């Protein structure tokens, strides 16, 4: 008798921002975080191979006017290993400049936020559950992208962009497996922010290559539990949790089951759509897309986190 993979035992994608539990002792929750905003719906389109041209074609881009730095800082909770290794992402330099908050409004006027990354002049990568409610299958009515939010602020208020078109991998009417492996979306925005903030490339590496490179990945996400401004040293981050991204170095893809990646980066609601980044030949590339966490129902501690393979971007751009 075969044993079901862990994600199949626990998998059930919940409504945006909701953290739920199973009777079987574990739960999986998508990692959007609820919040607030206005309305004007983008055009939504289902995925077709070769559907869109992505200007960078998978290569990163840094504007000449931007500095580049490896330091995201500008200098005992529900986490898989029980230790929170995140630090605030305070840098306005590349590549940290490419990552921002996705903020949206659902059809029933609920607000939420996720994480998104510029991958071209006017294209942002995030999760499907950050643009579509997994329970109701309704499309979000308005979606904003705010690049490089630090302590609640972008470097220029005029750089807040709105999604005008969304291509998604799933609308959550399929089975659990299909929903998990296709939980991605790309948004065309109404401003070419990548020219100013730069954008990340992507690399479709084999699962074994990712697993073999232990503690080599970076993760960035606007988790709704981070930073805690009441914690010593974080008092100056007055905008509160979810308004400064958390950064973690040295996390890993720990295994792969049936096209589902498992990772140990520190995440929470709001970090959905956050990039797992690898440095390849000295350049930063997205190698996987964070999308969910499996929790212990009794302790609320993370068991493991899930990620989507990035190979769909090659198909979307017609690169294979």
Automatic annotation (TrEMBL):
Residues 33-42 have a biased composition (Polar residues). Keywords: Signal. InterPro entries: Glutamyl_endopeptidase (IPR050966), Peptidase_S1_PA (IPR009003), Peptidase_S1_PA_chymotrypsin (IPR043504), Peptidase_S1A (IPR001314). Coiled coil: none annotated. Residues 1-23 form the signal peptide. PANTHER family: SERINE PROTEASE. This is Trypsin-like peptidase domain-containing protein.
């Amino acid at each position: 008798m075969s044993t079901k993979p862990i994600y199949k035992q626990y998998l059930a994608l919940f409504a945006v921002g909701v953290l739920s539990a199973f009777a079987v002792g574990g739960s999986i929750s998508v990692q959007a975080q609820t919040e607030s905003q206005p309305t004007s719906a983008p055009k939504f389109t289902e995925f077709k191979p070769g559907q869109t041209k992505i200007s960078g074609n998978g290569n990163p881009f840094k504007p000449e006017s931007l500095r580049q730095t490896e330091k995201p800082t500008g200098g005992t909770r529900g986490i898989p290993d029980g230790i929170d290794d995140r630090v605030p992402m305070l840098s306005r330099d590349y590549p940290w400049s490419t990552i921002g908050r996705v903020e949206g409004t659902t059809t029933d006027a609920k607000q939420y936020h996720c994480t998104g990354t510029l991958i071209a002049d006017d294209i942002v990568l995030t999760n499907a559950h950050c643009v579509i409610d997994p329970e109701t299958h309704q499309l979000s009515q308005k979606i904003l992208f705010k690049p490089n939010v630090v302590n609640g602020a972008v470097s220029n208020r005029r750089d807040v962009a709105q999604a005008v078109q969304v291509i998604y991998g799933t609308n959550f009417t399929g089975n659990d497996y299909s929903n998990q492996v296709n939980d991605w979306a790309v948004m065309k925005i109404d401003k070419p922010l990548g020219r100013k903030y730069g954008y990340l490339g992507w690399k479709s590496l084999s699962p074994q290559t990712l697993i073999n490179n232990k503690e080599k990945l970076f993760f960035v996400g606007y988790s709704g539990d981070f930073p805690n401004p009441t914690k010593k040293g974080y008092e100056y981050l007055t905008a509160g949790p979810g308004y400064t991204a958390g950064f973690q170095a040295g996390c890993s893809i720990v295994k792969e089951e049936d096209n589902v990646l498992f990772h140990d980066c520190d995440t929470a609601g709001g970090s959905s759509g956050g990039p797992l980044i690898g440095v390849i030949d000295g350049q930063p590339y997205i190698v996987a897309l964070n999308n969910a966490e499996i929790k212990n129902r009794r302790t609320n501690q993370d068991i493991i986190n899930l990620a989507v393979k990035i190979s769909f971007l090659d198909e979307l751009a017609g690169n294979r």
